[in-house]
Amino acid sequence: MRLAISYLQNPSMRLSSLTTRHPNASMIMYQKVTSLSKQAGSLFLRMSHFCCKIHPRVSFSSSASARVPEEPLLRAERPMAERSLSPKPPAFQTLPQPPLPVPLLQEPPSEAPAPLFSPPPGPILTPRSPRSEHPSLSTQPVAPEREKSTPSSLASPTRPNWQIRLSPAYAVVMVAAFLLLLVGGSILAATGQWPWKAHPSVPGTIWHKQNIGTTQLLFAVAWSGSQFVAVGYDGAILTSPDGHAWTSQDTGTTQSLSGIVWSGSQFVAVGGATILTSPDGHTWTSQDNGNSVLLSGIAWSGSQFVAVGSNGTILISPDGKTWISQDAGTTQDLSRGAWSGSRFVVVGNAGTILISPDGHAWTAQNTGTTQDLWGIAWSGSQFVAVGSNGTILTSPDGHTWTAQTSGTTQFLSGVVWSGSQFVVVGWNGKILTSPDGHTWTAQTSGTAQPFSAITWSGSEFVVVGNGDTILISS
């Protein structure tokens, strides 16, 4: 034992000197050193377990596979050695804490409740073993497990907080658009027409020429509610459902037809000494009028037809088949007639105007003009008559007539009322419009052909005239 202590105190002692002084010195020294090492290791392990129970943050690791096998001789001596050695507190050394990672865009962590056994503030302490070089007695400081922080961008998804931001200019535009729609809707509901359109909303201002495939002169046109029928020279009759596509019909006559009207159940066309009737505009039947006078126009009152012609001729019929001649009291040629709801008004040459409440008794009216009159229409409140040299006359009752300024000297041959305006047509492509019969505006027709007549379907105007000229406006 003394030799082992001397060897431990002086490691530079040569082993040869020890073996010289005692022949079994090497074996004795090895056994003693091994015994002391085992006792020191056992004592240190017990102290480490005791420290772990006192301080939970201090831990020691020892590998069971790295322990030195205990000999049977030392196993009996262990209890005595453990009782003889009093436990001493281990020495501690201060270890620096590892730096914490700084998360990007990390929100400040919320305060968590304190643990039941929180370590005291200060550096982390770990015991230092006097025999730390032995593999079975090595200690590893364990860094405290810190709470992992999760950036807010990687946290659990939350409901997005959407916000609508409108600039003042955008808000003004939206309010203006809403007001325009409100005003436009009110006008549409009141008038049936949208106030803002690419084209004028009033028919009669823009006209389109249609090709009808014929060169016949057309003198008159009428609308039945489902189709247009135009009549003309040499017994020509054309029909169209829309004013665009026209079809020629066989009439069985070569007499020129100059007037046509729809009664609600049939068309009646007149011209020369001929009177034709048709329920549909396709099949025509010739009717006997009892004379050979030339007829130029016809009107319908709702219960009676009135046909007029040359030399003051007036014929009346309740059905279009049986005709009776009436005394007009004049020899002037009569051209057209109209019904106001209470009386017939017929116009003719030299400013002739005749009125009758029933078609039987006729009275001549003073018009104040000697111009030939070729067309007449009723608006519901007044008559408008047109004729040569741009003549336009108006009358509220058919008795008193007033000349209006038309702004033209062209021959005016036809006039119609649409419900909102009068439209007048004449030679050299002349078209005039007026909302009241007093103020007239010239429109562009796009042609210089003469026009003979015009009608209104409820949605579009149709004008007929010379050659293949048919114009529509809607």
What is shown here, in short?
The protein folds into two domains: 1-93 and 127-139, no CATH class; 208-473, 7 Propeller (Methylamine Dehydrogenase, Chain H). 17% of the residues lie in helices and 28% in strands. The protein has helices at 2-9, 15-21, 25-54, 72-84, 168-191, and strands at 91-94, 125-128, 208-210, 218-223, 228-232, 237-240, 247-249, 259-262, 267-271, 274-278, 285-287, 295-300, 305-309, 314-317, 324-326, 334-339, 344-348, 353-356, 363-365, 373-378, 383-387, 392-395, 402-404, 412-417, 422-426, 431-434, 441-443, 451-456, 461-465, 470-473.
Model description:
- This protein folds into two domains: 106 residues, no CATH class; 266 residues, YVTN repeat-like/Quinoprotein amine dehydrogenase (Methylamine Dehydrogenase, Chain H).
- Helix 3 crosses helix 4.
- It is 17% helix and 28% strand.
- A hairpin with a 6-residue loop joins strand 14 and strand 15.
Based on Cα principal axes, name the global outline: elongated
- How many strand elements? 30
Strand order of the largest sheet: 3-30-29-28
CATH superfamily of the largest domain: YVTN repeat-like/Quinoprotein amine dehydrogenase
Structural class: alpha+beta
Q: What percent of the residues sit in helical stretches (DSSP H or I)?
A: 10-25%
The CATH topology of the largest domain comes to: Methylamine Dehydrogenase, Chain H
Rg over alpha carbons: 62 Å
Number of alpha- plus pi-helical segments: 5
Distance from first to last alpha carbon: 134 Å
Poorly predicted tracts of residues: 14-20, 54-77, 129-139
How is the biggest beta sheet arranged?
4 strands, antiparallel
